[in-house]
């Protein structure tokens, strides 16, 4: 297989709400990969290490959500804009149905899409973040560190947040810090982050009259695999109990010695579990 570099996989899709950028690799059934949130995040940075494995079996489509500095921005709150971007993206590519993998925010977006467009999601895989805290304080430690960085971005606060994302802090390299810092402090990207993670934004979301997405998880029809790091300090593992119990037929896989980025920190084990789930034959 040709080396899957950033440049060789990058694509653009023009839509009526601006350009959606994405990475594409492999051939086979479509697999939509949705990134999480946080300083300097992109779909490429979330899933670049997993693409070679999944591209052997799937047409991998790594969408960059509006509001994170890669796809063209829109005026809406990034979480509100994301499901509509997924729909425009699949429509624009002519993809009627796909498997979906979502990390954290991407898992929430994938769940919402599976609820609103049930015929378009065959199987759903989430990585942390989905559900709600039942026993742990909310917001979690990592979210509080994210809020602190968003309101007053310093390099030290970025490093503190990155350390909360992983069990093994050796993964927080100078290269990772530098690429995240440069992207996260770009003015428009930072302004978008503040729509999600300022204390004012968090309080407004908590006071919203809209029913929370987790109260509708029972409406998901897609076969669902919930994956989680046992040592997640951003979204503690007790959050998994609600989706595990309410999504019909959901499966839960918890990885030890693992923080919020299961697809990075327990790469081989996570890929093995997810591939087994996605390639398992349909039950009669």
UniProtKB/TrEMBL annotation:
Signal peptide location: none
Span of domain AB hydrolase-1: 29-265
One of the protein's GO biological processes: acylglycerol catabolic process
Domain of life (superkingdom): Bacteria
GO cellular component: membrane
InterPro entries: AB_hydrolase_1, AB_hydrolase_fold, AB_hydrolase_sf
Keyword vocabulary terms for this entry: Hydrolase
GO molecular function, one term: monoacylglycerol lipase activity
SUPFAM superfamilies: alpha/beta-Hydrolases
Protein name, per record: 2-hydroxy-6-oxonona-2,4-dienedioate hydrolase
């Amino acid at each position: 297989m040709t080396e899957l570099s950033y440049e060789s996989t990058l694509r653009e899709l023009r839509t009526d709400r601006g350009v959606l950028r994405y990475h594409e690799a492999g051939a086979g059934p479509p697999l939509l990969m949705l990134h999480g949130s946080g300083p300097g995040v992109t779909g490429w940075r979330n899933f670049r290490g997993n693409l070679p494995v999944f591209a052997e079996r799937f047409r991998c489509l790594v969408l960059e959500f509006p509001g994170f500095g890669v796809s063209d921005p829109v005026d809406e709150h990034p979480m509100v804009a994301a499901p509509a971007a997924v729909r425009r993206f699949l429509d624009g590519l002519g993809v009627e149905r796909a498997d979906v993998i979502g990390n954290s925010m991407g898992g929430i977006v994938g769940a919402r899409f599976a609820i609103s467009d049930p015929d378009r999601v065959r199987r759903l895989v989430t990585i942390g973040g989905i559900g709600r805290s039942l026993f742990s304080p909310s917001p979690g430690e990592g979210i509080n560190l994210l809020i602190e960085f968003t309101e007053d971005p310093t390099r030290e606060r970025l490093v503190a947040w990155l350390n909360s994302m992983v069990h093994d802090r050796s993964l927080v390299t100078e290269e990772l810090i530098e690429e995240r810092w440069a992207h996260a402090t770009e003015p428009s990207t930072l302004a978008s982050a503040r729509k999600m993670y300022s204390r004012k934004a968090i309080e407004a979301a908590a006071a919203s009259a809209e029913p929370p997405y987790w109260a509708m998880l029972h409406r998901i029809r897609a076969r669902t695999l919930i994956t989680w790091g046992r040592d997640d300090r951003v979204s503690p593992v007790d959050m998994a109990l609600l989706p595990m119990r309410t999504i019909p037929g959901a499966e839960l896989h918890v990885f030890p010695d693992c923080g919020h980025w299961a697809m990075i920190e327990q790469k081989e084990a996570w890929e093995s579990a997810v591939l087994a789930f996605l390639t398992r034959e349909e039950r009669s």
